[in-house]
Amino acid sequence: MAPSVPTVKLPAGTPLPVIGLGTWKSSPGQVGQAVKDAIDLGYRHFDCAFIYQNEDEIGAAFAEKIKEGVVKREDLFVTSKIWNTFHSNQKVHEAIDKTLAALRFEYLDLLLIHWPFGYKEGGDLFPKDANDKMAHTDVDYVETWKALEEVHKAGKAKNIGLSNFNVEQVQRVVENSTVAPACHQIEVHVYLQNKKLIDFSKSKGMVVVAYSPLGSNDRPKGPGFGDFPAPLEDAVVKKIAAKHKKQPGHVLLKFLLQQDLVVIPKSVSKERLKANLEVGCRPSNVPACCAPLCSCAAICLFV
User: Fold this and answer.
1) From CA 183, how far away is CA 45, in angstroms rounded?
2) Residue 45 has what DSSP assignment?
3) Is residue 129 predicted with pLDDT exceeding 60?
4) What are phi and psi of 125, to 5 degrees?
C-alpha cells in the first residue's frame, strides 16, 4: 500500500501534498516512466510546465495509471505554468488549452505565471531581437494575472499563483487581484534560503513551493560565483547526514520541510523517488537538527 503524504491547505481549502515530483529537465522517454513509478510509490503531486516540453508524455503516463485504476484524477494535484510567450490575455487562454490537451485533463489544480516578464509572442519560445538579445514584450504581468483569473473562473484551474516574482511584484499582483494568489513557487535550497521572499509570500496567504531543493547541476560556475560544492556535497550537510545515518538529500529536504515549505525534487530514478518520498511521508524519521545549515547560505541561483 502506497504511503500517505501529508498535505497543506491552499487558501481555497485544496490539499497540496508537501512533497511532489518536479519534471524540469526530465528527458523525453524517461519522464513518463518516472511519473508512473512515482504514482506507484505514492506521489500525488506533480509539477509541470509548458516550457519543459514534456507534458504530452506526462499526460500519457497519467492516463495509463488512471485507466489501470491506480489513481483517479481527483487523487492527483497537478501544477503547470504559463510560459513567457503567452502573457497576453488571448495567449494565456491558448496556453491553458494546450496544456490541458497535452495532460488529458479538463482542469489543473494549480496554474502559475512562470516568470514576471513576457517575450515576443507568436514565434519561438526564446525569441531574439536583431542584436541577438531576448525579445521582450510590454505586456504587463498584471494583465497576465487577470487572464489567469478568467481561467480560474472558467473552471480550468482550481487555484492560481505565481512563480519567480520578487516582493514588489507580488505586492502589485495582490493589490490588483480579485482572486488572490494561492501559491508562490520559487527557488529555495540551502545556498539560497530566500527568507525575506518566503516570509512576505506567506504573509499574503500564499503557500510557498521550493523548486531545486537539492540544488542543480546547472548552477553558475567560474569567477564571481564562488568555489563551493553542490549542496549534496556540502561538508555541513554531509556531517549532519553521517551523524544521524541519513542521506544528504534527506537532510536538505528536511531543512525545507521543517520551515513549512512544499518541496518538488526532480528525479527519474525509482530508488531516489522512494527515498525522497520517505522524507515527505515520515519527516520525523529525519531529525530536526538542521539549524547549522542556516550558515550555508551563499546566494547562488541554480536555474
Assistant:
1) 14
2) E
3) yes
4) -75, -20
Residues in the chain: 303
Give the pLDDT confidence of 16-41 residue by residue, as tens digits. Answer: 999 999 999 888 889 999 999 999 99
Are residues 216 and 190 in contact, defined by beta-carbon separation less than 8 angstroms?
A: no
The burial class, CB within 10 Å (0-12 / 13-18 / 19+), for 148 is: buried
For 28, counting Cβ atoms within 10 Å of its Cβ (0-12 exposed, 13-18 middle, 19+ buried), the class is: exposed
In angstroms, rounded to a whole number, what is the distance separating the alpha carbons of residues 25 and 7? Answer: 26
Percent of the chain exceeding pLDDT 90 equals 78
Give the N- to C-terminal CA distance of the chain in Å, as an integer: 36
- Amino acid identity of residue 102, one-letter, is A
Measured at the CA of 256, the angle between CA 253 and CA 259, to 5 degrees, comes to 145
Residues acting as catalytic residues: 52
What are the cell numbers at 148?
Answer: 489567469
